[in-house]
Amino acid sequence: MMSAATIQQPQPRPVAETARLAVSIRDLDIRFGDKGNEFTALSNVSVDIAEGSFVTMLGPSGCGKSTLLRCIADLVHISDGSVSVFGRPPRQAREGRDFAFVFQEATLLPWRSVIDNVRLPLEVGRHDKSAYADPMELLALVGLKGRENALPHELSGGMRQRVAIARALVTKPRILLMDEPFGALDEITRDKLNEELLRIWRETGTTIVFVTHSIPEAVFLGQHVLMLQAHPGRVKEFMKVDLPYPRALAMRDTVDFIKVTAHLRALLEECI
Ligand SMILES: Nc1ncnc2c1ncn2[C@@H]1O[C@H](COP(=O)(O)OP(=O)(O)OP(=O)(O)O)[C@@H](O)[C@H]1O
User: Fold this and answer.
1) ipTM of the complex in this document
2) What is the atom index within ligand 1 of the atom nearest the CA of 180?
3) pTM of the entire predicted model
4) Residue from 150, 146, 118, 149 nearest 134 by CA
């Protein structure tokens, strides 16, 4: 069964249960544009994400999901409030390679083989000793063993996205930020990668923050779903998904799963 803690007024500070925080966001405002012509993308957002947790993010188009992810990654200037990543500012977290990003498009270098694409982050910039000494291990983790010498154009979209995930994991980031990573894939491939991502999460212990437009995907993957509402972007609800792991795709046909998705669907309609 689901337990949904509706946000209290004023602005809530939803906290996941486990002790150590991977990300702590306090009273965050993001404004774009010049003074006098400013657009508020995010307003008064506060949320805590526990280390090792899997948080999915939902909300109507333009509500600021990508912007929030980009704040954690030090890709957006913070107008007001604060973001801390393992207790330090995003800039330091970026320099320390605390996180890695996976986008909707795999953005692989077309002239490099699979294994050379995966190795790329080890060749640029600093990385510590915790990085994978043997990126072949990662190819096994994402189910691409045997395809290490293939070029990106020889792979399917799902395979390319697996390479992108392996590349993101090669430095052993503590947080994986994923912005609609499976949004461009067909349903069957997406389902398979959903199951594989849960396995990878279990095996690596990486904290994952995952943006999606799919309610079933958000529920299937997440321990918590962060729902944002639009105009301006703000937290609507930070909901714990009380469904047990390991999760298999058949779970999506259960009454408990359908209840959670129905709740989120109703909530999403309120957010537009
Ligand atoms: N660099 C920027 N400059 C100006 N406006 C921006 C910038 N980045 C984002 N925005 C605006 O901020 C708002 C939130 O954008 P964002 O991409 O975060 O939304 P989203 O929820 O991820 O949308 P979608 O679901 O459609 O991908 C949008 O109105 C967008 O136009």
Assistant:
1) 0.98
2) 27
3) 0.91
4) 118
